[in-house]
Amino acid sequence: MYLSRSCPEPYSLVGPLVAEYGWYLLFMCVGVYLVVQHLSKRRASQGQSSSASGAVQDPNAVVRRQESLEASRRRMQEELDAKAALFRLKQQQLEEEKRRQKIEMYDSMKEGRSYRGKAKTAQNTEEASTSTTVLKPKTDKKPLRSSGFNPLSGEGGGSCAWRPGRRGPSAGGG
User: Fold this and answer.
1) Which terms under GO biological process does the entry name (predicted)?
2) How many domains does the chain divide into?
3) Tens-place pLDDT, residues 118-131
């Protein structure tokens, strides 16, 4: 009997241990499970990538793939070069047009004419020649104010007679 008492039963050791550290053990088991799953996925993906790179590939297929990549890159570069050439051409045309307008403005200034009106009419004629619709000038404009309106007279304001406040301290109580 003395020997059976000296060797305690396993349940008597596990019970207090689980009662004391049960939650910690549960979280530790879940963490270990997640780490093992992650490592197994990583090992499987490394095995597939090494087998794919180590596998014997057809050299002709590799050469064809590289040639097709090079051809597509060359096509894309040619398209980009063509777009850049068109853009440069448009920029040169715009600069030439601006330079021509500046020369016209300078010539009209030298002659004493109104250079702004001339440039605007030139633009309007160009716009009119490019468009097919005929634009009618607006003739039924109403004047904003009556012809006898003078803002400095103080008349005709109606209900909006604003005056600035007094200067200095307020004159309250004394």
Assistant:
1) endoplasmic reticulum unfolded protein response; retrograde protein transport, ER to cytosol
2) 1
3) 555 556 666 655 55
